[in-house]
Design a protein that fits this description.
The complex is a heterodimer of chains A (about 325) and B (about 350).
Chain A (H helix, E strand, L loop, with lengths): L3 H9 L2 E7 L5 H24 L16 H17 L7 H4 L10 E3 L7 E9 L2 H11 L3 E9 L1 E3 L8 E4 L7 H23 L6 H8 L4 E2 L6 E11 L2 E9 L3 H14 L4 E11 L2 E2 L11 H17 L9 H4 E2 L6
Parallel strand pairs in A: 3-10, 7-12
Antiparallel strand pairs in A: 1-3, 2-3, 4-9, 4-10, 5-6, 8-9, 10-11
Helix pairs in contact in A: 1-2
Chain B lengths: L1 H19 L4 H27 L5 H6 L5 H6 L4 H9 L3 H5 L2 H8 L3 H13 L4 H10 L8 H13 L4 H10 L8 H14 L4 H10 L1 H4 L3 H14 L4 H10 L8 H14 L4 H6 L8 H14 L14 H5 L3 H8 L4 H8 L3
Helix pairs in contact in B: 1-2
Classes of the chains: A alpha+beta (about 325), B mainly alpha (about 350).
Chain lengths: ~325, ~350
């Protein structure tokens, strides 16, 4: 029977963990790596505690003449060791105790192939929490690096260049102006979608309650847009948004390029915040092991207790914008 | 306890009824007898339930998983026990149903000679276990055939140490017939124009490459020669230095090469001198190169000052790299990784 220690750890492995997703790897792949790593660690611990390494069996296999004798000896000596044990549960026979299909893992925000940054995984019972977080649609912050002057067919650096243009006339102020107008139009769109006149008392009451968000999970809304860095053709913007995906963000960069009478493509997209989880909490892939992951889970669970509204919204009226046709 | 209460109540009721109805006492007593009989029957049933052997539910659930068959038979079968003692991973073997079927039909006497022969070839017990785990059908081979195959190697001037290394590194080697092995060795000698000594060096360095599908080796040669543009001498140099390169997937190889040659601007001659860097993952290369670029110390030309060796770049762990090669700290490197 397995040692209580591995069972205890297995039982403790339920909750949310926050990991760092590098670019150019899929979330699905990352999940698989995580599961394999955790199961291997657990099984190893289990075996180590259950079957401690036996005393090194001395076999004189150096000279070939003694080989036959040595095999027989080692076989018989091993026999006496293993006779008392029930071989049915030996790791060489039954295989690892914890297998990949036993560990349920699901993600609560999906980052595309080219996106890097904060990613939340729910382990075992935590998959439910992950689902709640996903369905609650919390805001996320992205830092996107774009380059003016070239447009590519897929919007990324890796794509084929389809158009070139000048960019030298673009100043930091111009970008900031465009971005703030975009942000304002998004806010306006939200109130229009609610079916409220912007000059009415109703709109004021709604605005007082805080930012409103769509009921539909398919409509991306931007709450904050600002340019944090502009240097040569490359620029970096920070986006606070909801319901976004990778394609939407690359389109946003292309749109910015077009509005400035130039063209632009995306270089990197990085998720720097997911509700209350930031890069600080994210665990790098090289640090994934049983110890670090349980520690990270503990940290994340404490964060979740502090910010309960991520999982469970106490006041649904406050933040829901009903999507009615525009009058 | 409950049953007792029930019984006394029942008897009381019966008595009341019997007192009410005259002349029925006899009947009532008979009823009491009946209840007692029932009681006996109940206890008998209880006993029989206890007699049914309890099946371990964990055993039933495990039937559905790999490792179940070997777990079921291991305590009964002598062969399986002996194999476990050798360190054979039965769980791995069971993933191939045909192999497991074959192993279960064996008797230990049949395979004993083969195992002893492997031992005589100079393999350690764990290595024999590893070889059987990887290639259980090795036990199917005739002992005479094995001897002929080893003889062939001796005839081709392989030393005993070389043969030991070949057999322990490539458990599939001994299942190939002498004709096959001869063809394969001939292919390598002809394709890369190697001398006899070089063939032996290549075989001992990477025995698995020899039995690797010739089609893939040809494809990788094409990648190295035509797509990367190495000359025949350089290819030979790469093959003898790092034979593993011809075993890796062509896409991975090309990706690494493209990053090395196009992004890091490393000339072909340097790569041919240090073919290990072609085996490095692109991700690792990218991370470390970009960190050096950020620090402004990406100087890979050995004739200029502040030279960073490419081998130092790809080898060792991140702690060693960030402190010794990049002259920075691990914390900084980890923070840098989160900005990528």
């Amino acid at each position: 029977m397995p040692n209580p220690d591995s069972i205890m750890l297995w039982k403790a492995l339920k909750g949310i963990i926050c990991v760092y997703k590098p670019a150019e790897i899929s979330v699905k792949n990352l999940r698989k790596t995580l599961i394999t790593k955790l199961c291997n660690d657990l099984s190893e611990l289990d075996v180590k505690l259950r079957y401690p390494m036996p005393e090194s069996i001395t076999n004189n296999s150096d000279s070939t003449s003694l080989a036959r004798q040595a095999t027989e000896i080692s076989l018989t000596t091993n026999q006496s060791i293993t006779k008392s044990l029930d071989l049915r549960y030996h790791p060489l026979v039954i295989g690892p105790r914890y297998r990949d299909e036993d560990l349920f893992v699901s993600w609560s925000n999906y980052l595309g192939w080219n996106t890097s940054g904060v990613l939340l995984f729910g382990l075992r019972r935590g998959t439910q929490v992950a689902k709640f977080i996903r369905e609650n649609r919390s805001t996320r912050a992205y830092r996107i690096n774009g380059v003016f002057g070239k447009a590519t067919d897929n919007g990324f650096q890796t794509g084929k260049v389809v158009e070139k243009s000048t960019w030298k006339y673009i100043k930091h102020v111009h970008i900031q102006r465009i971005l703030s107008s975009m942000q304002a139009s998004h806010q306006k769109k939200m109130y229009e979608a609610c079916g409220v006149d912007l000059n009415s008392q109703l709109a004021y009451d709604l605005a007082v309650k805080g930012p409103i968000r769509p009921v539909d999970s398919k409509i991306p809304i931007i709450y904050g847009l600002k340019c944090i860095d502009y240097e040569g053709p490359s620029f970096t913007i920070e986006v606070q948004c909801i319901n976004e995906n990778e394609i939407y963000l690359t389109n946003l960069i292309q749109e910015i390029g077009l509005k400035l009478h130039s063209t632009a493509h995306t270089r990197t997209i990085k998720c720097i915040r997911h509700s209350c989880f930031t890069l600080e909490h994210a665990l790098l892939q090289k640090h994934w092991n049983l110890h670090n992951i349980t520690e990270n889970m503990d940290k994340c669970n404490r964060l979740l207790v502090e910010n309960e509204e991520i999982v469970n919204q106490s006041s649904p009226v406050l933040r829901k914008g009903r999507l009615a046709p525009v009058p | 306890m409950l049953r007792k209460i029930f019984k006394t109540n029942f008897v009381n009721v019966l008595r009341n009824v019997s007192s009410a109805v005259d002349g029925s006492i006899i009947q009532a007593t008979s009823l009491v007898d009946l209840t007692e009989n029932k009681q006996n029957a109940l206890t008998e049933v209880e006993h029989s339930i206890q007699k049914v052997p309890r099946t371990d539910l964990s055993e039933i659930s495990k039937v559905l998983r790999p490792g179940a068959v070997s777990s079921m038979y291991v305590n009964k079968s002598d062969v399986l026990q002996q194999l476990v003692k050798l360190g054979v991973n039965l769980y791995q073997i069971e993933k191939d149903p045909e192999a497991m079927k074959f192993i279960l039909t064996l008797k230990f006497e049949d395979i004993k000679d083969t195992i002893i022969y492997l031992k005589e070839l100079g393999l350690e017990t764990e290595q024999i276990g590893y070889a059987i785990t990887k290639n259980p059908l090795l036990l199917q081979e005739n002992l005479e055939d094995l001897k002929v195959r080893v003889n062939y190697l001796q005839y081709k001037k392989f030393t005993p140490e070389m043969i030991t290394r070949i057999v322990e590194n490539n458990p599939f080697w001994l299942t190939y017939s002498t004709q096959d092995i001869d063809n394969k060795l001939g292919f390598f000698q002809h394709h890369f124009s190697l001398t006899g000594k070089e063939v032996r060096l290549l075989t001992t360095k990477c025995p698995r490459l020899i039995t690797y599908p010739i089609k893939s080796v040809k494809l990788n040669t094409f990648v190295v020669k035509e797509e990367m543009g190495f000359s025949s001498e350089e290819i030979k140099q790469i093959l003898l230095d790092r034979p593993q390169i011809f075993k890796t997937s062509q896409h991975k190889l090309l990706k690494t090469f493209e990053y090395l040659h196009n992004e890091m601007k490393i000339p072909l001659e340097t790569i041919a001198e240090m073919p290990q860097i072609l085996n490095c993952r692109v991700k690792r290369l990218k991370e470390r190169h970009q960190f050096l670029v950020k620090l402004g110390s990406d100087q890979y030309d050995c004739k200029k000052p502040n030279y960073v060796s490419l081998l130092a770049l790809i080898s060792n762990n991140d702690t060693h790299f960030s402190t010794e090669v990049a002259k920075s700290s691990v914390q900084l490197y980890n923070e840098f990784l989160k900005t990528l």
